[in-house]
Structure formats: C-alpha cells, structure tokens
C-alpha cells in the first residue's frame, strides 16, 4: 500500500472516530444543560408566582397571574384540590412537598414539579414537561448516521487532495531518478526550486548529490582519458622504434639507439603507471600511511645526494638548509617522494648552472619543506592549476619530457593525507618556491 493511501485511511478513520466522540460528548452535555436550565426556569416562575398570590382567611387572590409562563404550568391547590390554574391533562398526580423538586413519570414522558406552600394545606405547584432527551438523542443518532458517511467522505477527499498535492514533488523525484536510471544521463536534476517542506529538502539534497556524482564521474572519465592519452605516446614510440630496429638488424648502432629509446620510454611508462597507481589508491582511500619517527633533515640530505647526478647534468647546485634534530612522525617513503618531486621539478624547470635550495624548518608544530629554485618560474595564470592532475604549464618547457603532470598532484595528496597543506610562490623568469607543511606528529 502506498504511503499516500495509508495516510488517507488513517486520517479518515481518526476523523470519523473524532466526529463520533465529539457528538457523544455534545449530546450528553446538552442534555445536562437542558435539564439544569428547565429546573432553574421552573424555580424562578414558581417563586415569582408565590409573590403574586395572597391567602387571607383561607381565601385566595392573585395579581394578574399568568398560569402558563416560560413552559411552566401553574396551579393553586388547597386540601389536594386544584382551585385555579392550568395543568396538562396527562400530568401525573403527586403528593405535595414544600420547596423540593419532584420528577414524576407518566406514560407519555417525564415531568419536573415544584411546590411551594402558601398557607395551611395550600400550595402553588409548577409543572414542567421535561424535554424528552431520549427522543432528542435518538433523532440526533439518526442525523449522525446520515451525516457520518458524508463527513467521512469529505474528510477522505480533502485528505487525499492535500496528501496528493504534498507528495507531488516526491513523484518528480521518482520520475527524475527513473529517467537517470534509464538514460544514464547524470546531468538531469529535479529542480523543484525553493520550498520549505521536507520533500523540497529531499529534492534539493538529491540534486546536490547528483552534482557531486556527476562531477566525480566527469573527473573519473577525464582521468581515464588523460591516463590513456599519456600511455599512448610512449607505446607508439616503442612500437615505431621496435619496427625500425627490426628492419635495420644489420646496423648494430641503429639497433642500440632504438633499444635505448625503447628502454627510456619503458621507464617513463613504468613511472607513469606507478604514479597512476598512487592516485588510484588515494582516490579509493587506500593510500595507507605508515608513520614512523625519523629525522627530516637526514631524509633531505639523502634525497639530495641521490639527485646529485641529475642536477649535475644541468650544472645545477643543490644545497640543504635544515634545522637540527627535525624529528617528525610521518610516512618516510611518501615524504621522500614529496622532496623528490619538488627537487626534480626544480631541476627540470631550473636554469642551466642555476641553484636549488631545500629548506627544512619548523613553525608552530608544523614541519616545513620548501624547495626554492632560480628557474623559469610559473606565470600567475597557471599557478592555481599546477596542483591539478595532468596539468602541465607547457610540456615543451621541460628539458626531460618524462612528466605527465601528475607529480604535484601526488605531492598534494600525500601532504593532505598527512593532515598538512601545500603552497607555491613563483615569479615567471625568476624562480619558484614550493612548500609543503606537515604536522610534526600524526594525530591518531
Ligand atoms: P610535470 O612536471 O610532470 O609536468 P608536475 O605536476 O610535477 O608535472 O608539475 C606541473 C607543472 O607545474 C609542470 O608542468 C610545470 O610547468 C610546473 N612546475 C612545476 N614545478 C616547477 C618549477 N620548479 N618551476 C617552474 N615550473 C614548475
């Protein structure tokens, strides 16, 4: 059963129940009020009448007394005989009791009596035909029985209209979700606009979830296409060189050259594949850190000496300025990768015979790794995007065209995984400073 039907049924049952309860309360309350009203009228009329009746020497006078007033019949009795007044024919007889209400019953109904003594064995009697509550209630019951189906029908109809109107946006959500499932079109949105009910909230939550899914999906697609594009070039080179070498088997030098090219391209592919793997792991959230305590200064020194040869090829001087005893808790091999990527870029985009300085310092609980060069620098337009995957300012600027624009994005991911942040300052033509800050200790 749909939620709509359930709500309407519940609402209708409750409505009918409430109408019945309210009617029962109303009937009984009105019965009580009617009786109280009748008794007070009776009392008033009889008391007023007594004021207008005079008894002297056993004889009785009245001052223009109205013997039927406000539904009350008045009669004057002496020695149990009615002397004057009015009395309904079917009123039952009843003994005289001074000042006390009596409730005699006859076949035709019930009555209220009130007698007041005027003198010896002389009474004025007020008689009121009690309103027949039994008939009233049963006629109301009939009315209720006729009205109830209409009330229930109206309640059900009204309830259904309100529920249907309120659930209309939910139908839009279902329809849009269905369209997305059928067409694989992630750009579809419900677009209900502003509204302050839960279903509008749900629709806008759905839309913003779709925004995120779409952008994640687009990123994924872009990543796959960039990755295949980057792999296609070295593969094409390898195939071409292999073909060239196989058609020049007689010429050993040509074959050696081709093999060197193939090996270089193979290395490039291997590096690229390992970078892609790191990125895929970090996307899956499986870039696991293995934090350990080590001296960051020592790590910097080891890394620089391993890159000495590379720097020498361009006549670049590498130097280290590290604070003493920079013991940090971090994933050593990943931090080494950060330093390698920064320094490799500084050499790659550095000036021939230039310099590269690696500074390792600490600042309010953070270890700061900064790599400064006096290389070609980066223009302001590109600065913001260089941390993006596959983003290269201009691949022809690089001496060694082995990069695929992943180095800095990997640095950013590693540093972020450590709870740190990256930044860059650069002036085109003058040089750059790349900085990574990581907490000295990892929060567990
Ligand atoms: P790759 O070096 O493989 O192209 P990166 O992600 O390491 O990719 O760097 C992105 C871009 O940032 C590079 O293409 C390069 O143009 C620029 N860049 C990085 N480091 C430097 C630097 N030290 N000096 C000048 N430009 C740099």
Can you walk me through this structure?
Strands 3, 4, 5, 6, 7, 8 and 9 form a 7-stranded antiparallel beta sheet that branches. This protein has a 5-stranded mixed beta sheet with strand order 11-13-14-16-15, covered by helices on one side. A two-stranded antiparallel ribbon has the order 1-2. Helix 3 (198-246) runs antiparallel to helix 4 (252-284) and helix 6 packs antiparallel against helix 8. It is rod-shaped, with a radius of gyration of 51 Å. Helix content is 52%, strand content 21%. It starts with a helix and ends in a 5-residue tail after the last strand. The model has no long low-confidence stretch (mean pLDDT 87). The chain has 444 residues and is of the alpha+beta class. It has helices spanning 3-51, 133-183, 198-246, 252-284, 296-312, 332-348, 380-383, 407-417; strands at 53-56, 59-62, 68-69, 72-78, 81-85, 101-102, 105-106, 109-119, 122-129, 292-295, 317-322, 327-330, 355-363, 366-373, 421-427, 431-439. It is built from 8 helices and 16 strands. Residues 341, 345-346, 349, 373, 375-378, 386, 391-393, 397, 403-409, 432 line the site of adenosine-5'-diphosphate.
